Amino acid sequence: MATTATDPYAILGVSRGANEQDIKSAYRKLAKELHPDRNKDNPQASEKFSKVTNAYDLLSDKDKRAQFDRGEIDADGNPANPFAGMGGGMGGGGFRPGAGGQRGYNAQDFQGFQSDDVDLGDIFEGLFGGGGGRARGPQGMGGMGGAAGGFGGRRPPPPQPKGADIAYRLKVPFLDAATRAPQRITLSDGKTIDLQLPAGVEDGTQMRLKGKGEQGPGGTGDGLVTISVEPHPFFTRNGDDVRLDVPVTVDEALNGAKVKVPTVDGPVMVTIKPQTDGGTTMRLKGKGFSRKNGSRGDQLITLEIVFPSDPAELAKRLKDWQDDSKPRARLGV
Less crowded by CB within 10 Å, the N or C end of the chain? Predict the structure, then answer.
């Protein structure tokens, strides 16, 4: 039975009835907190990060999770002892514990059998599936361990551990993250591979590269790539949407105009209606970040009315003109 220190549910801090999303959310939160890049001065964080990753690997696999819940495998994914509890079910006390807790055999355990009456080799061959030479009578009992292999002799060796995972951090430009442009990463062995960013990518998203870790006796570990989305000079992210402040001149706002506006997919022409107020927000459909379902968010542009760099001519034209519309009346002042 797994202890609190090894129980994958306890490691991730979720209940046994947690759904896939609960498990994934708990893992992502802990992975961000414990990632080696954020805890370079805390060697214990790396060990905890490894435990969190191993716990997530087990619980995110439906088959392995079911096996663990049934007690068929342990928290490391190794098979549980298939002979646990057999001693109490053998009955009769004919097999007695020997040194080291293994079961040995004594001639007195088989009193009443005569070597010239019963072929004990036939009996134990039927019980344990024969194999080596057949031992006859009590004098031959010492050979049973070699013929049957003992209760522990046929247990398969435990699986060898895989190599350690290797952590990578990949900086992705804002526009590339929004459009999911392929990214090239250099691995620890000097080789480069091109990655397709996942739908719904965001700062802190992790990608697992199977078999791109260190070599171990039981196979190769994986590469764990943490995405770091770089900021942009004028675009900002708001959930799946992209925001942008767009300056327009006084005459464009007053008379209306068609202006070129940048988007993550390239510039587009936007129509500004006459007498558009500053602060007006316009929505460009499908020009935001990708969502996990494959759709995309929008781009929201907010218009800012700017005065000319030399306002003298404008001031001259507006001389002796006054706006009597009282725009702050709705504010009660």
Answer: C
